[in-house]
TrEMBL record, chain A:
This is Cytochrome aa3 subunit 2. Residues 107-219 form the Cytochrome oxidase subunit II copper A binding domain. InterPro entries: CcO_II, CcO_II-like_C, Copper_CuA, Cupredoxin, CuRO_CcO_Caa3_II, Cyt_c-like_dom, Cyt_c-like_dom_sf, Cyt_c_oxidase_su2. The lineage of its organism: Bacteria, Bacillati, Actinomycetota, Actinomycetes, Micrococcales. The keyword Transmembrane applies.
Automatic annotation (TrEMBL), chain C:
It comes from Myceligenerans pegani. The chain crosses the membrane at residues 12-35, 55-79, 91-116. Keywords: Membrane, Transmembrane, Transmembrane helix. The keyword Membrane applies. It comes from the Bacteria. This is Uncharacterized protein.
Length: 347, 843, 125
């Protein structure tokens, strides 16, 4: 399973997150030191032993003595913090200079478009005509320019280990630059409250080294082995490295069950919302399912991608994730089995 | 002029006549008609405490849901409703109203006054607030609970994604904001004009400095939210396009308007908390606050800079880095001001002899906690850091450190400190100390882990999280802590309530404190002070009174006097020298009627019933007219009223009576409102990809005519206000001049209104087609509302003229009308600049 | 007719002005820096023209410099009134003078922190 620490801001895994990490450490250390000094001063001020001659009676209260008190307040309270703040501000501005600029196309050879939806992510590779959902595959060691848009409400794109948040605001295209040093899976999620299922609006960023990434892109660019016709003789995808559902029904021609499942898919309401490349399913309201079986999770992170979860999802999406846009589908057990077998063949 | 110099003590009859005029109403009349600042302040605080309890219970439910990963205690829908209402309740129904209540109770006492300047308006504001709370919570009864978060970002709160729950939220909010703005005007006037003789600015308690600053912030910051919520309501129900990207609107406009309010709001809560510490900590340290001038400077710097931080809530919206960095600079600068205050408190502790009383414990707990919250505040002020921490539990931890640490601990310190003053009883020190340790321990157990939860990647506003995130234990700690914290609050409440019956009786000044409220009885009598104290130093009860015959004369003149009307000394702004007598309102039913009418209007809009809305308009109009008639009747009753003590006129024109300040503040509110709409239009214009070319309103003659009519209204009112003697005499010439002036002003104002409507009608704009059209119509609408208010005050001047024999009151009312019309002129100018000048110049 | 004293109005007025100017200057500095930079850059970008970054940056810094000078001048006046008041034994003026000095320094630092940004960061990114 996935390492728990992997979703934390620590340790950063490259790019913007790396640069911010240094700034973050400085803030944490400086802040802690200041806090300790202030609180120590407070305790000493309360508990220190008073000299006898400063003892006043209960109604004797020292008068106004501006001189020394004013200097203490002005310098310890005003000037000293100002110096610290100037230092912190300088580091902040420099960090911002290094991280805040949007990567222009020349600096970032890879461009990904991400469209936030209630409550999932549509991911497109415009140069390669690839479309997927809730999974962003990127090459390691390169800047990836992610262009963020939304058509419904405001979402926020956050991969803690790779970069800070950037919002997806209707009417705007915002940009975040991802850069992963090492191959691996990095968790991301929506960070701006976007409605009922904001909690379950996740995605993963999968970083591959360059050849693997090219292979993945190439495989995603083609329809899956058995989307519509049995004689689709495409070679097996070599980039499917971390697929969760291992049960793949042979790379050969269609089994009967796959064909039956396809029939069920194409004849039901599925096609109104989902696209499977190479078939007549051309819906755009829901995620593109062309390579569904190659993905790790379904429902934007709410369930793992396996037979049991697919069954739960297809029959009762509103029980699993109330408020998502998908209606439940009434199927007999056999039909459901066939449908899932078909979906699992979409690799 | 020397007759009052000799001290003549008031006779027993005079005393009882004085008490009679200040007598509190009894029974149900007291509930509905009492306008006295102590009863209004108490109501605010009690109501706010109830809402605090409700908001706290909501928080506990949320903590139970989050105690373990993937729990199903609450549904996602319920959870989202709870966090929305928790934030809304704590911000709008607890923190701000509680502090307004504390200020309403304490300010007159602390300043040596007998009531708030416009006591009936003060009461009206309380009722608005109460009805706002009832309206918001009625959402639970009708099963439409707001669930778009307390920040209500569009489009999630817009017409497409939110149901009627959002309208309930917006109307409730508008009513609560209206109350807060009114309370701010009260605070400005009481602090500037109603200080005890001799309390020059340099001798004013920090609490008064702070509430003055806070009130200015409220006027500048809450008005934009009020405008913003109206724009959103128009988008939702009238089809305007302010936030709709398809038609030239922009969802980020809402974020700007919301946070222009939202950030100052944080300091509206924290600064009074800090001010309570500045009052409490020196008393229990037996030492004056060290560095007073610097603390005042820090308060002013914080108040002003808080107006320029709002973009730090928008660091992740994709604004250019340099924009972010401007606001990083502002956000970081403000922390220096807090540093000044913290060092001043520590230096006071250092120099004094601190006693570990309950108020002191809460003050120390405040310092311990708030400094941590301030430091995390500096961290999230940094744009690159914030991109990681934003919208995670790190931020939740940060602002609870600032708000509970910086506002709630001081409030508890203040409650234990002032409880003897409020009730005449001293709460148990032992129970108080236990409640402190429970709240302090529970607080840190709840919120410290959240820093780590957030950095571990858990965002805010999620109803659950999965186990692989690895924050189950941290969340469990927070949940346990929340219950400890809650038990501490309950124990604190029990301690205070138990003291009502069993507490040791307190004299006027059990702590040996320094400020004037401790010179009044515990609890204070209805007029607070039979004899108004005079002030010669910053700690009037720790130092001998000044020897200043001028101040003593005023104190003697007001010694259990006047006896025919409620009045208190009015003094000069800078050095609080004796000036005039300010009349204070007596009990009245009309504030609750009018506020009820207003609430009814919102209900009518919600149920979309023209009948209810129509009825409510009648109630509001009748309420205001009856209110005004009562005002004038009472002021007119003492026709032959001599100046108090033969020296201090009961009414005087110019800044020497509260009305002038009130009219000025109202004018400023109008100007801020129209400036907000103009900013919105400009913002949309530069951000929209397509904007109607050459988009000017294009009605130059009608527009110029409106302006001219307003100028005429100002001139006529001003001219009228120059006529007539200032004493209690009445002259026929002045009467004629006042009538002419009021009539001319009214006619000119009506003409301005007609011309404005004509612009609207002829302008060939359709507010549903494009944000530009919506914006222009909103500007004209704002101008129209301003003109209606101008006509209202002109009508009051006319009523004053018709009901009074003497001339001074109509003079003052005409002068106030002139002030307000001047505000209307600025509104017109800004509206014209935004609709014609700027677009014209750009093209 | 009433007991309103007209003592030392000049110096008090100077001190009051010195108290009011720094906050107003800071608000203006932040407001104008933000409006000029953000609105100008956005207006150019929205209309598809390349924004003149250098000009906008220089304008922002120039505006801030003027306001900084104003703030410091107010501080100087405030300090003068503060010192003078010590001799005159007028505590109110002395207090306002000290307050004005502190405000001037605080807001001046704030303006400087705003004004340096265009020097370090790209004005229209």
């Amino acid at each position: 399973m996935i390492d728990a620490r992997i979703r934390s801001v620590f340790p950063p895994a490259g790019g913007v997150a790396d640069r911010v990490d240094g700034h973050l450490q400085l803030l944490l250390v400086a802040g802690s030191v200041v806090w300790v000094i202030v609180v120590t001063a407070m305790f000493v001020a309360v508990l220190r032993r008073r000299r006898a001659e400063r003892t006043e009676g209960d109604d004797g209260v020292p008068g106004d003595e501006p001189g020394r008190g004013h200097l203490v307040v002005a310098f310890l309270g005003g000037v000293a913090p100002a110096v610290i703040i100037l230092g912190v501000m300088a580091d902040s501005v420099l960090t911002l200079r290094d991280t805040g600029g949007t990567a222009d196309a020349s600096r970032a050879p890879v461009v990904v478009e991400v469209d936030g939806r209630q409550f999932w992510w549509e991911v497109r590779y415009p140069e390669h005509d690839v479309e997927t959902a809730n999974e962003i595959h990127i090459p390691t060691g390169q800047d990836v320019r992610v262009e963020l848009t939304s058509d419904d409400v405001i979402h926020s794109f956050w991969v803690p280990q790779l970069a800070g948040k950037v919002d997806l605001v209707p009417g705007r295209t915002n940009v975040v630059t991802l850069h992963a040093d090492e191959p691996g899976t990095y968790w991301g999620r929506c960070a701006e409250y976007c409605g009922l299922q904001h909690a379950w609006m996740r995605f993963v960023v999968v970083a591959h080294d360059e050849p693997e990434y090219a292979g993945w892109l190439e495989a995603q660019g083609r329809p899956a082995e058995s989307p519509g016709r049995t004689d689709d003789g495409a070679g097996g995808p070599d980039g499917g490295d971390e697929t969760a559902g291992g049960a793949r029904p042979g790379a050969g021609p269609d089994t009967e069950e796959v064909a039956a499942g396809r029939e069920i898919f194409m004849s039901s309401s599925c096609v109104y919302c989902h696209t499977i490349a190479g078939t007549e399913a051309r819906g755009t309201l829901g995620p593109d399912l062309t390579h569904l079986a190659s993905r790790q999770m379904i429902g934007a992170g709410v369930l793992p991608n396996d037979r049991e979860s697919l069954a739960r999802w297809i029959t009762g999406p509103q029980d699993v994730k109330p408020g998502n846009a998908m209606p439940g589908t009434d199927l007999s057990e056999d039909e459901l089995d066939a449908l899932i077998t078909y979906l699992e063949s979409l690799e | 002029m020397t007759t009052t110099d000799e001290e003549t003590r008031p006779t027993a009859e005079e005393r009882s006549a004085f008490e009679e005029v200040w007598a509190r109403p009894r029974g149900w009349r007291r509930v509905l008609t009492s306008v006295q600042h102590k009863s209004v302040g108490t109501r605010y605080m009690v109501t706010a405490a109830v809402f605090f309890f409700v908001g706290g219970v909501q928080a506990l439910f949320m903590r139970v849901q989050l105690a373990q990963p993937e729990q199903q205690v609450l549904s996602a829908q319920t959870y989202n409703e709870l966090f929305t209402m928790h934030g809304t309740t704590m911000m709008f129904l607890f923190a701000v109203p509680f502090l307004e209540g504390l200020a309403a109770y304490l300010l007159p006492l602390m300043l040596g006054a007998r009531d708030m300047p416009f006591a009936r308006y003060n009461t009206f504001n309380y009722w608005c607030y109460l009805f706002a709370g009832i309206l918001l919570y009625s959402s639970f009864l009708v099963g439409m609970v707001p669930d778009a978060g307390w920040f209500a970002y569009v489009p999630l709160s817009g017409p497409e994604f939110a149901d009627k729950a959002m309208d309930i939220w917006l109307f409730g909010l508008a009513l609560a904001e209206l109350a807060a703005i009114g309370a701010a005007i009260e605070m400005i006037v009481v602090v500037l004009g109603m200080r005890a003789p001799g309390m020059s600015l340099d001798r004013m308690p920090i609490f008064a400095w702070t509430m003055l600053s806070v009130a200015v912030m409220i006027v500048l910051a809450f008005v934009p939210l009020l405008v913003g919520s109206m724009l959103l309501e128009l988008d939702r129900n009238a089809g305007t396009a302010f936030f709709d990207t398809e038609r030239g609107g922009d969802p980020l406009l809402w974020q700007h308007l919301f946070w222009i309010f939202g950030h100052p709001e944080v300091y509206v809560m924290f600064l009074p908390g800090a001010a309570v510490i500045s009052q409490v900590l020196p008393v229990h340290s037996r030492h004056r606050l060290v560095g007073y001038p610097f603390v005042v400077a820090a308060v002013v710097v914080t108040a002003i800079m808080s107006l320029g931080l709002w973009v730090h809530h928008m660091y992740t919206t994709g604004l250019p880095p340099v924009t972010l960095s401007f606001f990083t600079a502002a956000s970081m600068s403000i922390s220096v001001a807090s540093g000044v205050q913290v060092v001043a408190w520590i230096a006071t502790l250092w120099s004094g002899r601190p006693r570990l009383t309950v108020p002191m414990l809460f003050s120390l707990g405040f310092l311990f906690t708030f400094v941590a919250g301030g430091i995390t505040g500096v961290m999230v002020a940094s744009a690159p850091f914030d991109a990681q921490a934003h919208d995670t539990y790190f931020v939740v931890a940060h602002f609870h450190y600032v708000l509970i640490g910086g506002m709630l601990f001081p409030v508890l310190a203040g409650l234990f400190h002032w409880w003897p003053k409020f009730t005449g009883r001293i709460p148990s020190a032992r129970l108080g100390a236990v409640s402190f340790w429970l709240t302090f321990g529970g607080f840190h157990l709840t919120f410290f882990p959240m820093h780590l939860t957030g950095l571990s990647g858990m965002p805010r506003r999620v109803f659950t999280y999965d186990a692989t995130l690895g924050v189950g234990l941290l969340n469990l700690l927070s949940t346990v802590g929340a219950f400890v914290l809650a038990s501490g609050f309950v124990l604190a409440a029990v301690t205070l309530l138990a003291a009502l019956r069993r507490g040791e009786r307190s004299g006027p000044n059990p702590w040996g404190a320094d400020s004037l409220e401790w010179a009044a009885d515990s609890p204070p009598s209805s007029p607070n002070f039979g004899r108004i104290p005079v002030v010669g130093s910053r700690a009037p009860l720790w130092n001998p009174p000044p020897r200043d015959p001028e101040l003593d004369r005023m104190a003697a003149a007001f010694d259990h006097a006047p006896q025919n009307v409620r009045a208190t000394p009015f003094t000069t702004v800078l050095d609080a020298r004796p000036s005039t007598a300010a009349v204070q309102a007596s009990p009245s039913i009309w504030p609750v009627v009018t506020a009820g009418g207003l609430a009814l209007a919102f209900v009518g809009l919600l149920v979309e019933s023209a009948w209810v809305v129509g009825a409510s308009v009648l109630v509001i109009a009748a309420g205001f007219v009856a209110w005004e008639l009562q005002n004038e009747r009472e002021l007119g009753a003492g026709e032959a009223r001599e100046p108090v003590g033969g020296r201090y006129p009961v009414e005087a024109p110019g800044p020497r009576s509260p009305g002038w300040w009130g009219a000025t503040a109202a004018a400023v509110v109008l100007v801020v409102a129209v400036a907000t709409v103009a900013f919105s239009l400009l913002f949309l214009e530069v951000n929209a990809p397509v904007w109607p070319a050459g988009g000017t309103l294009g009605r130059p003659w009608l527009s110029a005519g409106t302006g001219l009519a307003v100028v005429l209204a100002i001139a006529a009112a001003w001219w009228g206000s120059r006529h007539g003697p200032l004493d209690h005499a009445a002259t026929p010439e002045a009467r004629g001049a006042h009538l002419t002036a009021a009539a001319t002003t009214g006619l000119a104002g009506t003409a301005a209104l007609v011309l404005t409507v004509a612009q609207w009608v002829t302008a060939d704009l359709d507010h549903t087609t494009h944000a530009y059209d919506s914006g222009v119509l909103a500007l004209l609408g704002t101008l129209g509302v301003a003109i209606v208010l101008g006509l209202g005050i002109t009508g009051s001047a006319l009523v004053a003229r018709l009901t009074h024999a003497r001339d001074v009151r109509p003079r003052i009312m005409l002068q106030n009308a002139a002030m307000l019309w001047a505000g209307v002129l600025v509104v017109w100018a800004i509206a014209w600049a935004a609709t014609d000048l700027v677009p014209g110049a750009v093209v | 007719m009433t007991a309103v004293p007209a003592t030392r109005p000049r110096t008090v007025r100077a001190a009051v002005a010195a108290v009011l100017i720094p906050p107003a200057a800071w608000v203006t500095a932040l407001g104008l820096s933000y409006l000029v930079q953000d609105f100008a850059c956005t207006a150019y970008t929205s209309s598809g023209r390349p924004p003149p970054s250098t000009v906008i940056g220089a304008l922002v810094i120039g505006l801030d410099a003027v306001l900084l000078a104003l703030t410091l001048a107010a501080g100087a006046v405030a300090w003068r009134e503060h010192r003078r008041a010590a001799g005159d034994d007028s505590p109110l003026t002395g207090f306002l003078g000290l307050l004005g000095t502190a405000l001037s320094l605080g807001f001046a630092a704030g303006i400087v922190m705003i004004a340096v940004n265009p020097l370090v960061l790209e004005v229209c990114a």
